[in-house]
Specification:
Elements (H helix, E strand, L loop, with lengths): L11 E3 L2 E7 L19 E4 L1 E2 L13 E10 L7 E6 L2 E2 L1 E6 L2 E7 L5 E5 L6 E10 L10 E3 L2 E2 L8 E2 L3 E6 L3 E9 L4 E9 L4 E9 L5 E10 L2 E8 L14 E9 L2 E10 L4 E4 L2 E4 L2 E2 L2 E5 L13 H14 L3 E3 L7 H10 L2 E4 L8 H4 L2 H9 L1 H18 L5 E8 L6 H17 L5 E5 L14 E4 L11 H18 L5 E5 L18 H15 L5 E7 L4 E2 L9 E2 L13 H11 L1
Parallel strand pairs: 26-27, 26-33, 27-28, 28-29, 29-30, 30-31, 31-32, 32-33
Antiparallel strand pairs: 1-15, 2-3, 2-5, 4-14, 5-11, 6-10, 6-15, 7-14, 8-9, 8-11, 12-13, 16-17, 17-20, 18-19, 18-21, 21-22, 23-24, 24-25, 34-35
The protein binds (2S,3S,4S,5R)-3,4,5-trihydroxy-6-oxo-oxane-2-carboxylic acid.
Length: about 575
């Protein structure tokens, strides 16, 4: 586990581009030692999922192999080499020049390994084996490509950036930064070195053009160094003014620069108190969306231009927030959130919406009580926190999505995992997205209540009036039981096929979706215990094949290629007024 740090100083070799690719349907690759190198005429582009790059790979789940030859300069010979993958999976194994380097489970968190046996001034070969076979033990669980506990397509591949990085033997391993709107700054610096080092810490403006504060500490022993101080004259980070700074940390040994890393930070505080969420001691209302990382052909990789378009579209609609439903998003994605001032609810890949389709309730209770399973959940939570802990945009953690929290065993697991979040990072409140409404047994175990409602879509078909009435009745009851907890509606929405119109508004038409969203937002924004509204979903996204989906989940207010539906007009006017 590691925190990949930003650096101008560390040399990097990107491995993005075209790779050799081979599907291993009959699982012969291990036996035939493909890790040393294999023959194949197939090409694939990295990063991106494999599925949509070739219609023949589209429906494939299982083992596939990637291979690339790359050159490493001679001048890097005396450095330590690391391989970094920011997201691949579901299970990944890596070899360089035939030597095993490491393996990782989980598609949505970064991982990093030392690479030994590199040949400098020569070509080297990397082979990556990906296995995305469905399993009930996976996070999130599935038993088939089209039978999963989650309502999004189970892509496979190297979805996110992959590169080699080089450091000195004396390097900075991790930075943990707490920065509040009053200028207080705490930095935990983990440095690995044989000898004591001198640490130089500089707080720079966002564009690095000037240094606001500088500290030099001499003779710092290997391990953790804690800096605490107060910086005067900083501008806080907020959704209205997302002021960012860079905290640069450099380590020197005998006057020689050994490492230089930085993190982009914002000074802000988060607090939940008396039924409200406060950012910098001011109450906020979260307006926004549940999103997905899903795009035609790229699969589970949202390319830069799409991210830019998304953030401008979200801003224009009047949104200030989103949840990383249902897995931690890429660094590029969350960098944009820091930059554009979005308030992010960060969610690990613990998604159980359709769990009762793949397991009976007794087996679900057993799974959630299983120590090994909980340890696995904790591992991915720890990886996620470590990767994104320094982001000002991340203001809250969602423990999971739509667990069977009307069962005591599941409620107990939520309690344990929520406490684990708070232990690792006491600076951010917790929540989880519940669809159990008044039957939920776990709402007390988190700081903020999050509810998903589809009354008027999955029930009360075609009757938005009745749906809204039923939803409000449940909501009032939940508020009565938990009068001091703020409530966010983390999901509400209706499918609409772009271009399908109907008067009167009927299900699946753009008019029905627009009316559904209008009625929900109007009713919910009147309740003062509601502190956030996230429409499901920002854009249409690909799902497993089922009779209730038309290849895509169509609840996007934008189509999959980011064209607006009718609901955008009404949503913009409502959000911009809130
Ligand atoms: C939910 C899930 C989400 C689904 C959505 C739907 O409750 O959290 O993953 O996509 O409903 O459209 O059914």
């Amino acid at each position: 586990m590691f925190k990949e740090l930003k650096s101008w100083f560390r040399p990097k070799t990107s491995l993005e581009g075209f790779w050799k690719f081979k599907i291993d349907k009959d699982l012969i690759g291990d036996r035939e030692e493909w890790f040393k190198g294999f023959e194949s005429k197939d090409l694939i582009y990295v990063p991106s999922s494999w599925n949509e790059q070739n219609p023949e790979w589209d429906q494939f789940t299982g083992v596939a192999w990637y291979q690339k030859d790359f050159y490493i300069q001679k001048e890097l010979e005396d450095k330590l080499a690391w391989i970094i993958l920011e997201g691949a999976g579901y299970k990944t194994k890596i070899w360089v020049n035939g030597n095993f380097v490491g393996e990782h489970e989980g598609s949505f968190t970064s991982f990093k390994y030392r690479v030994n046996g590199l040949r400098f001034g020569e070509f080297n070969r990397i082979v990556v084996r990906i296995d995305n076979s469905p399993s009930i033990w996976n996070l999130p669980p599935s038993i088939d490509l089209n039978v999963s506990a989650f309502d999004f397509f189970h892509y496979g591949g190297i979805h996110r950036p992959i590169y080699l990085e080089f450091t000195d033997e004396c390097y900075i391993e991790d930075l943990t930064i707490y920065a509040s709107e009053d200028g207080s700054l705490k930095a935990l610096i983990d440095n690995v070195c044989e000898e004591p080092v001198d640490l130089k810490m500089s707080l720079a403006t966002k564009d690095f053009s000037s240094i606001i504060h500088e500290e030099i500490v001499s003779g710092v022993k290997p391990g953790r160094y804690v800096y605490e101080g107060k910086i005067s004259g900083i501008k806080p980070w907020s959704p209205e003014e997302p002021n960012l700074y860079n905290l640069i940390v450099e380590s020197y040994s005998n006057g020689e620069l050994k490492d230089s890393v930085y993190e982009r930070i914002g000074f802000r505080s988060v607090k939940v108190d008396g039924g409200k969420i406060y950012i910098n001691n001011k109450p906020v209302f979260l307006k926004g969306f549940g999103r997905h990382e899903d795009y035609p052909i790229f699969g589970k990789n949202l390319p830069g231009p799409v991210l830019i378009r998304d953030f401008y579209l979200m801003k224009k609609v009047g949104a200030n927030s989103f949840r990383t439903s249902h897995y931690p998003y890429s660094n590029m994605h969350l960098d944009m959130a820091d930059e554009f001032g979005f308030l992010v609810i960060l969610e690990p890949p613990l998604c159980y919406s359709g769990m009762e389709r793949i397991a009976d309730r007794e087996s679900i209770a057993k799974l959630f009580s299983n120590e090994k399973y909980l340890a696995k959940a904790k591992k991915v939570i720890a990886e996620m926190i470590r990767e994104h802990k320094n982001r000002p945009s991340v203001i809250m953690y969602s423990v999971m999505n739509e667990p069977q929290s009307d069962m005591p065993e599941v409620a107990e697991a939520i309690k344990e995992l929520s406490a684990y979040f708070s232990k690792l990072d006491p600076s951010r409140p917790t929540t989880f997205a519940s669809n159990r409404s008044v039957k939920d047994l776990a709402l007390n175990h988190v700081d903020v209540i999050s509810l998903n409602f589809y009354r008027g879509w999955y029930s009360e078909w075609g009757k938005i009036d009745e749906g809204v009435k039923a939803m409000l009745a449940d909501l009032e009851e939940i508020h009565k039981r938990h009068p001091n907890k703020p409530i966010i509606i983390t999901e509400f929405g209706a499918d609409a096929i772009l271009g399908l119109h109907s008067e009167p508004p009927q299900m699946w038409s753009e008019e029905y979706q627009a009316e559904f969203i209008r009625r929900y937002v109007e009713a919910l924004s009147k309740k003062d215990y509601i502190v956030g509204l996230h429409v499901w979903n920002f854009a249409d996204f690909r799902t497993p094949q089922t009779p209730w989906r038309t290849i895509l989940n169509r609840k996007g207010v934008f189509s999959r290629d980011r064209q607006p539906k009718l609901s955008i007009v009404i949503l913009s006017s409502l959000f911009n007024k809130l």
